[in-house]
Amino acid sequence: MIAALICTFLSFYFAFVLLFKKSEPLVLAQQQRQSRQWQNQLHSLFLFYNSQLLVFGYWLGFVLLPLLCWTLTSSILLALLCLAPWSIAPPKIFARLQRRRLQLFEQQLPDCIDQIASSLRSGSSLINAIELFAQNTSSSVSQEFTMLLREYRLGHSIDQVLASLDKRCSATGMSAFVTTARISVKTGGNVAINFDRLSQSLRQKFLLEQKIKALTAQGKMQGLVVGLLPLAMLAILWHLEPAAMRYIVSSWLGYATLIVLAGMLFLGFWFIRKIVDIEV
């Protein structure tokens, strides 16, 4: 078994090397484009990792993952099907990281606005208040404000850097903050009072979102159970009756059953997520 596994790995390796040499310019160009794209996405999240190393690991997974799946199941079709979730994993991961950053951003923004409003009451200007907040805190909001201050020091006006901040950050609370700040800078008035009202509104909105999230947590767990329970039963039956279950991965009827099962699981999970997905 070990000798067969080593021979299979070596054959895959040499085939990959030969194919890579034939299409090396195209592969390198694709890796460079993907590396630049991932680097831009990571920098937008203020994550500074080696994107070239991540791209190399991603492409290496296209070789090792099917080999591992084929070793465990002895099914070429399942070894090829496992590439589908691997190929769409990076966009899903980046989208999840973006959502988590936005959630943390919305949670921290009301306290940030309160601190800026307190600095404005003490006589500081808007830029000085933002700078004081960015220097004394280490949060995702302070990272965005640090970027704003760098643009301001390069010679851009307050209105321009606020517009750039609004374009760079897609959080609803930040858009409201930028709108309030730009109107106050142009028309004047008591900016601190406006920021106090805005922070109170954002805090109430966040509390309402958390309440809805708590009320819909059971539905989300039900969707997760609906999706994982058949897979768990399949794994248990595979362990108890391997001879009978191996027919699923060695015949076209078994493949059709798995495809229908995967489609029904996806639809059930998708419908439950849509039902419990409530936006404020």
Describe the structure.
The chain is an all-alpha fold. Helices cover 85% and strands 0% of the residues. It has 14 helices and no strands. The chain has helices spanning 2-22, 24-44, 51-73, 76-81, 83-87, 89-121, 126-136, 140-153, 158-168, 172-187, 191-215, 217-240, 242-245, 252-276. The mean pLDDT is 78.
- What class would the helix/strand composition place it in? mainly alpha
- Give the assembly state of these chains: single chain
Uncertain stretches: none
Helix content: over 70%
Number of helices: 14
Rounded Rg: 26 Å
Q: Kindly, what is the distance between the CA atoms of the first and last residues, rounded to a whole number of angstroms?
A: 57 Å
Largest sheet: none
Number of strand elements? 0
Instruction: Estimate what percentage of residues fall within beta strands.
Output: under 5%
Broad shape: elongated
Order of helices and strands: HHHHHHHHHHHHHH
Mean pLDDT: 78
